[in-house]
Structures are given as structure tokens and as C-alpha cells.
Amino acid sequence: MTPLEHKRPMKKADLEDRIRAVDLRPTKQRIALAELLFSDGNRHITAEKLHSEALDAGVRISLATIYNNLHQFTTAGLLREVVVDSSKSYFDTNVDPHHHFFHEQNGTLEDIHSGDLTVSNIPELPDGTEISSIDVIVRISPDNNS
Amino acid sequence: MTPLEHKRPMKKADLEDRIRAVDLRPTKQRIALAELLFSDGNRHITAEKLHSEALDAGVRISLATIYNNLHQFTTAGLLREVVVDSSKSYFDTNVDPHHHFFHEQNGTLEDIHSGDLTVSNIPELPDGTEISSIDVIVRISPDNNS
DNA sequence: TAAGCTCTTTAGAAAGATTCTAAAGTATTG
DNA sequence: CAATACTTTAGAATCTTTCTAAAGAGCTTA
Lengths: 146, 146
Prior knowledge:
Two copies of one chain form a homodimer.
Chain A: H1 12-21, H2 28-38, E1 44-46, H3 47-56, H4 63-75, E2 80-85, E3 88-92, E4 98-103, E5 108-113, E6 118-120, E7 129-142
Parallel strand pairs in A: 4-7
Antiparallel strand pairs in A: 1-3, 2-3, 4-5
Helix pairs in contact in A: 1-2, 3-4
Chain A binds a DNA duplex (30 and 30 nucleotides) through helix 2 and helix 4.
């Protein structure tokens, strides 16, 4: 995270408001997940990883609840799902349009801010269709010499 | 497929050569898969779909063999894997650099030839990394009015 | 605050895709 | 043809994600 970047260490009440704002009940589990997800900058996380973070933080929560809420948050626009690996799903707390670096070595994602990469020359779309999103993944790996 | 597009209805001997060329033995199963994959223009196919096509074509082949060979062909550069859906893998017979339309409605892929779409302004890469590939997925869905 | 209703959570089962195992089969080489 | 190495296969196993149905918790009203 760069020094000037937006950051918001959220209070619990703010998190509750944020959950209420999307018409979900602020349960203990949701608040705990929201805290893990939204308290400290942008994150890219898998269900399994979020689950273990929650357990490590002392929150008793089942994996099913993790999945339920990741999907509900995504539907509500609080998260966005990123497809980079055919074996698991990543959820991104940055819901503004942007792209990603994917470190193939360790399965880690890094944001590319929207202005930093341009897609142009998009060909005519198939008839009767419209764009629902454009995803650019720049897959990177450790280079030979360094 | 457009009228002027490259097409090569391959003979069985050509397929065998192609398999030998990547140091694999031309078994009955490999030849049958190569025929389904490479005989008629570019394809985007899942393991399950290829399996059922093979069975329909009267080729006795197990799903494990499908997976084995899809991976071996991919490693050999005869196929390329496209990640668009977190629940299954697609294999593309077009191994030249290019991008994709993904029809969200029916899970279908369509090539965007390399010259038809440009990615520019790629930001500086993280230290010690190099690009291994750039994937652009233009996700499309049926539009409201048509 | 109690009742009642709805939404949530949960454990465990189930599903779906992919990989693994180890044994039987086949291509290749000499 | 024999010896060797590579392949195929059925079925089990694994992994991620979803489902089920029962118990629990938040919310509204009186």
C-alpha cells in the first residue's frame, strides 16, 4: 500500500452500518468477517484462508457461513470475485474497476489500478450481447536473473 | 468460422506425426482425442465435454486418460488452458497469443484475435518478475433490447 | 420484554471436478 | 520376440463448494 493511499481503520459500528446498508443482519459472524475483510486496505482472499484467519482470531464460524457470506457480500457489491485459478475462488475487497497481477509462484494477487492499464480496440461484440466486465490478468513469475 | 479462415482437415497420419513430434506415443486414445481436438478449426472444450464426444464417437476412453492427455498436450504446447470459470477448466486449441469473449449465459468461449484487441500501459512489474502471459476476458451477456 | 416471524448459522452429507494408485495393456527398441 | 518404458484404466481419494434441515439469533410489534 502506497503512503498516500486511501485507508480506513473501521470501527465495529461502521462495519455494522455497512452490513445493514446492504440489507443484511449484522450478526456476530458477519461483523467478524467484515472486520477481517475491510479493516485494513484491499485484500484478495480465498474462502479457506478467510476461514482460518477467522478461527485464528478466535471467531467460531463454519466454512459454510464463510461461503454464504462471501457470496452475499459479492451480490451486495461489497466484494468482487476474481477468476484466476481454476481450482479456487478469490474475493477482492476492491470493487472499483481494475485489473490484476497474478503471481503464479505463490498464487497471490496484486491490483493494477484502472488508469494504469488500458484495453483498447475491443472488436465488435457478438450480436445481441453487451459487455458485463473486462478482466485483465497479467500473469507473472520470478525472472531468470535476479 | 469465417470462409477465409485457416482450416485443416487432418489425416490420421498427420495427427500421429503431430503427437510424435512432441515425444508422445501415438496411442489409439491420443489419436482419437487429437482428431476431435484438431481436425476442425479452433475449439474451446472442457474435459467432461471431450470425454462425452469421444464416447459418442465410439472411442472407449476413461476420464482419467482425458485429463492425462489434456495436460500432456498443454505441456507440449499443443493446447492452452483458459481460466474463465472457477468451477471447470477450458482447453483451447489455439495456442497463438489471443484473448476471449466469454458468454456468461452459456459458458461458451470465442476467440478475439491478437490484433483485434490491445493492452497498453502495463505498469512496472513487481521486482524480480517477468510476464508469463496476459489474459483478457471480455465477459458478455445477452443485452436488454434485441 | 415476550411472542412470533424471518433470517442465519451450522454440522455433516452431498456434489462436482480433478488427481491418484496400482495393476493391466501397449508401443518401441534391439 | 523379449525387455523396457510409457499408457490406460477403474475406482478410490481429494479438494472445493453447495446443500439440507434443524437449531440459533436478530427484529418487530404490542
